Amino acid sequence: MSAQPAGSRNFKQALQWQWQDLDACAGQKLDRDHPDFAGFMALATTSGNKRACWNSWIAPHNFEGFFLNMGDMLVKSGDWQRARKLYQNARLSPDYAQWPFREVLEQRIRDAADNVVAFNAPVEPNAPEGRQIMIESSISCMACHQQ
Fold first, then answer.
1. I need a labelling partner for 102 at 20 to 30 A (CA). Which of 50, 71, 87, 134 fits?
2. With 80 as the cut, is the pLDDT of residue 145 above it?
3. Is 83 within a domain?
């Protein structure tokens, strides 16, 4: 639903679900104005239902990819300042240095304000990689699942 127009009901619902996912992973409501996940890193697990919140064998960079995707959604919604804060959570992962897409994230942090327009533009097949919301890019699955 993140590919839907930013003002659509489906997109807004998807963004709300993203916040709910973070709340479930944290075990409490995350501060929407200061979405810092550092205080919840000790909750990381590779088993049980909450393994979906973290990196695991099935998604070795799920944590990083989640924050990339959600940050992109916030940018698309026009909330690029909050997106920058959210993107930065991906750096908390102990696997961040090995994540093949860390430069994509760093570029997103730098270009967040400019990407509001880019992420809301019609998808072009040959658009530069950094100018497309994650779900519309070639890394939409790999950001979480690639070793």
1. 50
2. no
3. yes
91-134: pLDDT as tens digits: 999 999 999 999 999 999 999 999 999 999 888 777 666 778 88
Look at residue 10 and tell me if it is in a domain.
no
**Nearest CA to 72 among 21, 109, 24?**
109
Query: Based on the structure, what is the number of domains in the chain?
Result: 1
**Residue of higher predicted confidence among 137 and 77:** 77
pLDDT tens readout for residues 15-68 = 999 999 999 999 999 999 999 999 999 999 988 989 999 999 889 899 999 999
Alpha-carbon span 76 to 18, nearest angstrom = 14
Domain containing residue 146: 60-147
* pLDDT value of position 71: 97
Sign of CA dihedral 127, 129, 135, 138: positive
> How many CB atoms lie under 10 A from the CB of residue 92?
16
